[in-house]
Design a protein that fits this description.
This protein is mostly helical. It is built from 21 helices and no strands. Helix 14 (290-318) runs antiparallel to helix 15. It is globular.
């Protein structure tokens, strides 16, 4: 078997972008084509939100909340540690004249954007190899929350760049305002949407139902952006809430249609991002500082290690279930890929220094390509070398695809009526009681019957009466 087929699809897209960008450069059309590329605002308005929404909407809530505490620590505390270590390191490197000089808050802002983890390639292989759930959801859960936290940190530190520096406490207050406010907006809008779906008969008109559902799905993003919060954070929390309380109120047609619509949009967005990364490498006018690039790659690995290993040690001291093994910790460190969020944030790096902005874009692009191609491409070999559970059972037909059977099963309609709070949480916990006694009865209809396969529907329709209306 050709080992090339084991590469995740995102790496293939990057190479495709590099080939196209090289062609544009050789024909002298790179500068003209560059004007058609999206800027940061367009990235965060049209491309990133569907990717983040689908990640939160389709995740297996039970498995996610089963690892809620370690995921929260890695995603929030770990991201802060990564940003501070990388930012402090890159500042000291420039301060001693080794690489490009960054002012202190420029360095911390750079550290914030580069701390955004995007392990799409790793998750694709994890799904195909059926690795143990602890490893899968620690990596997946961290990546889902990490992007939002990194953006909040980025905005907080970027406020400190410039001659008029506010008090030292402003980044802390800004972080709390954005983090808490975006969470409240996401939960509130999704709960209101779920209540409307329950109280009306939109399910009688699947087209109108799906249109309404699509609009309210992305509503938290625009509200948060208008209130100077994080649209990414808002849409992530909103997606998780809407998937639990809103989806059971949809018709069977609406449930299946919304699932596949969100997945398809997200998949197209991710494919575009990775192709764009390859195009950017060969068609942008970069400002390469080789020393800064090499040191930054080293700092990425070091900052990731200072995140994973200390926090895993602390978690294991209080973890009653299976401990986070050394193998799992190593793979979590190795799986810290960078992607769309980091690159989008780098496009409009604040501070007004054009040379610094170009260095940040070029260095970020180099880090992303290194982590995707080297770390992402080497994940399979590392898993097999460490003999991780499932590593020898890889299905090559699905290893390269993000939209595979396992991810669809995570959002199977049969799961929508399961409790939002997993069985790993005590049955008498206040979260479970609140969900079961108040929120579920208030926001959702009676449980719907699970969806059948398309073939089953067609068979039923063929065998039924001619006057009977078929739902598809």
């Amino acid at each position: 078997e050709n080992s090339f087929t084991q590469l995740p699809d995102c790496i293939i897209y990057v190479f495709a972008g590099i080939i196209v960008g090289t062609g544009l450069r050789l024909t002298g059309r790179a500068d003209a084509a560059g004007s058609a590329f999206p800027n940061q605002e367009e990235f965060f308005l049209f491309i990133i939100p569907p990717i983040i929404f689908e990640a939160g909407y389709s995740m297996n809530k039970e498995s996610f909340f089963g690892e809620a505490i370690p995921i929260f620590l890695f995603a929030v505390v770990g991201t802060i540690i990564t940003a501070l270590v990388f930012g402090g390191g890159i500042f000291l490197v420039g301060f001693f004249g080794v690489g490009h000089y960054f002012r202190f808050y420029e360095a911390l802002t750079f550290g914030s954007l580069i701390s955004a983890v995007d392990p799409v390639a790793t998750i694709a292989i994890f799904n195909a190899m059926k690795v143990n759930k602890t490893l899968h959801y620690l990596v997946f859960g961290e990546s889902v929350l990490n992007d939002a936290v990194a953006i909040v940190l980025y905005r907080s530190f970027s406020e400190m760049i410039g001659p008029d520096k506010p008090g030292w406490y402003l980044p802390i207050l800004t972080f709390l305002y954005i983090f808490i406010g975006s969470t409240v907006v996401g939960i509130t809008t999704s709960c209101m949407a779920a209540f409307i779906l329950k109280s009306t008969e939109l399910r009688q008109n699947p087209t109108l139902e799906l249109s309404f559902y699509l609009l309210v799905a992305f509503l938290p993003y625009f509200i948060c952006e208008g209130l100077k919060m994080s649209g990414i954070m808002g849409i992530l929390i909103g997606a998780m809430t809407l998937g639990h309380y809103g989806m059971p109120n949809l018709s069977e047609t609406g449930q299946l249609s919304s699932n596949q619509l969100f997945k398809s949009i997200a998949y197209c967005g991710e494919a575009f991002v990775f192709i764009y990364l390859g195009l950017a490498l060969t068609s942008f006018n970069h400002s390469w500082n080789v020393i800064t690039v090499l040191i930054s790659i080293l700092l990425v690995l070091i900052s990731r290690a200072t995140n994973i290993y200390p926090l895993a040690f602390i978690i294991n001291q209080y973890r009653r279930r299976e401990k986070i093994s050394h193998k799992t910790q190593f793979i979590m460190w190795f799986s810290g890929l960078r992607g769309a969020i980091a690159f989008a944030l780098s496009l409009n790096f604040p501070g007004g220094n054009e040379e610094t902005r170009r260095v940040v874009i070029s260095t970020t692009l180099a880090i992303i390509l290194f982590t995707i191609i080297v770390l992402g491409g080497g994940t399979l070999s590392i898993l097999q070398l460490l003999r991780v559970e499932g590593a020898n059972a890889i299905n090559l037909s699905t290893a390269a695809s993000r939209v595979d059977v396992d991810r669809f099963e995570e959002m199977d309609i049969t799961d929508v009526n399961e409790s939002y709070i997993p069985n790993t949480v005590a049955k008498n916990s206040w979260m479970r009681r609140l969900d079961a006694a108040i929120l579920k009865p208030l926001l959702t209809r009676d449980p719907v019957e699970p969806l059948e396969d398309f073939a089953d529907h067609e068979e039923d329709g063929a065998e039924g009466d001619e006057d009977e209306e078929v739902p598809f």
